[in-house]
Amino acid sequence: MKETADALKSGDSKPRCIEEIGPWPFITKRIFEASDKKRTLWSSRHHRKHLQVSIDNQTIVAPFRALSLLWMPWKMNWWIGIGFTIGSFLFALASVLSLLVISIHIFNFAPRNIMLMFFTGSLFFTGAAYLQLFQAANAVDILHVDPPSEQRRRFFGWRPKDIGWLSSMLQFAGTLWFNINTFDAMFPSLNWLQQDVLIWLPNFIGSILFLLSGHAAFAETCHKRWGLEPHNLSWWVVFFNLIGCFAFLVASLFAIVLPFPMDAWVANLSMVFTLLGALGFLAGSLLLLPEATSPSPD
Questions:
Q1: How many CA atoms lie within 13 A of 124 on its CB side?
Q2: Mean pLDDT (whole number) for 197-211
Q3: What is the full DSSP assignment across 202-235?
Q4: pLDDT single digits (tens) 78-125
Q5: If 213 and its partner were Cys, which of 170, 232, 249, 275 is the partner (CB 3.0–4.6 Å)?
Q6: Where are the domains of the chain?
Q7: Of 11, 81, 19, nearest to 49 (Cα)?
Q8: What is the 8-class DSSP label of residue 292?
Q9: Per-position b or e across 122-157, b if 16+ CB within 10 A of its CB
C-alpha cells in the first residue's frame, strides 16, 4: 500500500487499478498493478487507520509484545483502543453491579452511582469515537491527492461516499445519544413517560446508529455485506463490535417503560444484553491494541 500511495503521489510509474470491489455503492478494496507486474492492495479500513495490509487482505501486525500494547501514545489507533476499552469496561462493570443489586441484592450500591458509571463510560466512548471520526475525515484520497498547500485539517469532514467515514460518523452520533441516555438516567423520580422520552428513546436511537455503524465497519473490512475472515485480526475487531451493537439494540428493546407494572425479568434481561454488548465491545476494543502495532505505511 505504501508503494501504491508513493507512486500515485509522485506520478511516476503510476500503478494501474485492475480491480475494485466493495459493498454497493462503496469501494473498499482496490488492487493496483505496477509496470513491473507487482501488485499492491488498497483497503479502506487500513488506509484510513494508517495500517499495513498484505495483498491477501491480512492486517500486518508487529510481533506480540505486551508492554508495547500498554503504551503507544504516539499512535492515534492506540488512544482509540484505550478509550473504547475503558468505556466498555465501565459499561460491563455497571451492568454486573446492576444485576447484583437488582436481582440478587448482594451489594447495597446506590443506583445513582451505577448510572454515573454508565455515563462516564459513555464519555470515553464519545472521545474514542471522535478520534476515529477525525482520523477518517483526514484520510488522504490516494486517487485524487491534493497538493500539500491545499490539504487542511478537517474536524468532522463530509464524506458520505466513504463507508469508513460514514461508519465513524454514525458511531460518533450514537455515542452522543448514549451520553443523553445515561445522563438522564441519573435523575430519580421520573414518571414512565419521562423515562421513555429522556432515557429509553435516546438509548434506542443510539443503539440503531451503533448497529448501522457496526455493520458498515464490518462490510468495509470484508469488502462485502457479510464474510468470514478468521485469519484477519481486523475482521475479529469489527466482528466483536457488531455482536456488541446487536446486543445493545436488544437491550434497548427490553428497556422500554410501560404505564403499568412490569415483571422484573424484563429489566434484568435488558441488563444482561447490555452486559453482553459491553463485553463484545470490550473484546473488539482490546483487539484494537495489537492492530495498532501495525507499521504505518506512510
A1: 23
A2: 98
A3: HHHHHHHHHHHHHHHHHHHHHTSSS---TT-HHH
A4: 999 999 999 999 999 999 999 887 665 555 667 888 999 999 999 999
A5: 170
A6: 2-48, 66-291
A7: 81
A8: T
A9: bbbbbbbbbbbbbbbbebbebeeeeeeeeeeeeeeb
Residue for grid cell 440478587:
104
Cell numbers representing residue 22 in the block: 466493495
Query: Three-class SS of residue 243?
Result: helix
Amino acid code (one letter) for 152: R
Q: What is the mean pLDDT of residues 217-229?
A: 96
Indicate the residue type of 69.
Answer: L
* DSSP assigned state of 57: S
Q: Which residue has the cell 475482521?
A: 235
**Torsion over CA of 57, 63, 64 and 70, rounded to 10 degrees?**
-90
Q: Nearest CA to 174 among 247, 85, 248? A: 248
Cell of 122: 459513555
Q: Are 253 and 205 in contact (CB under 8 A)?
A: no
Q: What is the pLDDT of residue 10?
A: 47
List Cα–Cα distances, 96 to 185, 251, 286, 289, in angstroms: 17, 14, 19, 25
In angstroms, how far apart are the furthest CA atoms of the chain?
73
For residues 293 and 69, the answer to whether their CB atoms sit within 8 Å is yes
pLDDT-based confidence at 143, cuts 50/70/90?
Answer: low
Ordered DSSP codes for 136-196: HHT---TTSPPPGGG----SS---TT-HHHHHHHHHHHHHHHHHHHHHHTT--S--HHHHI
- Amino acid identity of residue 190, one-letter, is L
